[in-house]
């Protein structure tokens, strides 16, 4: 097996069926960070503060009425979808990695093309990746001929007739490769845009202060460098990452990230400003004596490959590819539970929808999964 790319590969054997609700085998607390227990650190180090944006963990109450009390298929027939977000009006947007299409879902779940990025250079894990929405602007992370980039587009029109205005490139030339492109973008409660940049299959980049590869970046909505970033004049917020694909913030501002490991451990981390998370010197725990930040939870890549993530209340929900499971993590103690094991195949993303449910985005049609009739799809499930 190609160790450098195995985290997103389909398993060589079918994943074992695990009872939904079973406790996952993970490595958790008892670790320390700068003299704090990890549970205490999670609450004590949320990063820079600012006037909070609307909480991502509390959906509008008026949207939570009259929804099914079981799983519901929202959309079908998607091709290698990667990211799922909602506009300010509550309209779901989803993109397709290889086609370069950005789609809105109509009321009946029919996908409608909002726009297409014709210059996306798809291949391997590269292509049209993360989406983020701020007001009437759509932010897009994608792979181009010159590397990965972040662009901003005006989201014109209204639900059912959205279109993309002219794009502005905020950042380009990020390292890209057939794997480890990062790709997740999200606005934090401080109003800043966070961008995950993978090591692009060159692990030393993660520890190289002159490279943006293997980092989490933080920028203003216009692409500028915030004055309170850890290193003046640098977009780098944290370093020592292999391939981060999930970001979420608790109501207290604590920032979490999921990360693909290589041979041993996938990770869930609390992200602190200026933190170094050890890759490639350390995979998983054991880096504190070297000055690195240890994860709060780890899993075998066979059981995880965590990609997108969201938070509802005090519970994190992690979409897993190889593990084919939605994993919930209670942030008060970090107990883990597995949900829907094997039921929908590989899961690329999960989002908390305005109707109060979790929307799961499958990833079975990109050549690494076993596509089922109707794949890829979006499935809405009640928050457990």
TrEMBL record:
InterPro entries: 6-blade_b-propeller_TolB-like, Glc/Sorbosone_DH, Quinoprot_gluc/sorb_DH_b-prop. Residues 1-20, 46-72 are annotated as: Disordered. It comes from Microbacterium terricola. PANTHER family: HEDGEHOG-INTERACTING PROTEIN (PTHR19328), HIPL1 PROTEIN (PTHR19328:SF13). Residues 1-39 form the signal peptide. Residues 78-368 form the Glucose/Sorbosone dehydrogenase domain. This is Oxidoreductase. Residues 46-66 have a biased composition (Low complexity). It comes from the Bacteria. Gene3D superfamilies: TolB, C-terminal domain. Residues 1-11 have a biased composition (Basic and acidic residues). Pfam families: GSDH. Keywords: Signal.
């Amino acid at each position: 097996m190609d160790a450098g790319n195995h985290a997103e590969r389909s398993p060589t054997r079918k994943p074992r069926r695990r009872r939904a609700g079973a406790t996952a085998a993970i490595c958790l607390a008892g670790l320390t960070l700068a003299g704090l227990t990890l549970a205490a650190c999670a609450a004590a180090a949320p990063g820079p503060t600012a006037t909070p944006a609307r909480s991502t963990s509390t959906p509008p109450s008026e949207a939570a009425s009259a929804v099914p009390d079981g799983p519901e298929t929202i959309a079908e027939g998607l091709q290698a979808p990667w990211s799922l977000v909602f506009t300010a009006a509550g309209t779901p947007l989803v993109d397709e990695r290889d086609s370069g299409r950005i789609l809105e879902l109509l009321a009946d779940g029919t996908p409608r093309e909002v726009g297409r990025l014709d210059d996306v250079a798809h291949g391997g894990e590269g292509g049209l990746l993360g989406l983020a929405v701020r007001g009437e602007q759509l932010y897009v992370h994608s792979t181009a001929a010159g590397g990965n980039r972040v662009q901003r587009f005006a989201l014109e029109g209204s639900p059912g007739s959205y279109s993309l205005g002219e794009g502005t490139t905020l950042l380009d030339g990020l390292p890209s490769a057939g794997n480890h492109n990062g790709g997740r973008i999200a606005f934090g409660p401080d109003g800043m845009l966070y961008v995950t940049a993978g090591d692009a299959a060159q692990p030393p980049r993660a520890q190289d202060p002159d490279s943006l590869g293997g980092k989490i970046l933080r920028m203003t909505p216009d692409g500028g460098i915030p004055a309170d970033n850890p290193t003046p004049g640098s977009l780098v917020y944290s370093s020592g990452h292999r391939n981060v694909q999930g970001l979420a913030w608790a109501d207290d501002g604590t920032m979490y990230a999921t990360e693909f490991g290589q041979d041993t451990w996938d990770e869930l981390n609390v992200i602190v400003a200026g933190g170094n998370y050890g890759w490639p010197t350390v995979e998983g725990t054991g880096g504190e004596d070297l000055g690195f930040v240890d994860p709060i939870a780890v899993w075998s890549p066979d059981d995880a490959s965590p990609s997108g993530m969201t938070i509802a209340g005090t519970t994190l929900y992690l979409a897993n590819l190889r593990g084919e499971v939605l994993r919930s993590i209670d942030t008060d103690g970090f107990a883990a539970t597995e949900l829907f094991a094997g039921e929908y195949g590989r899961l690329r993303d999960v989002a908390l929808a305005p109707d109060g449910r979790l929307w799961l985005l499958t990833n079975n049609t990109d050549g690494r999964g076993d596509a089922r009739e109707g794949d890829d799809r979006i499935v809405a499930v009640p928050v457990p």
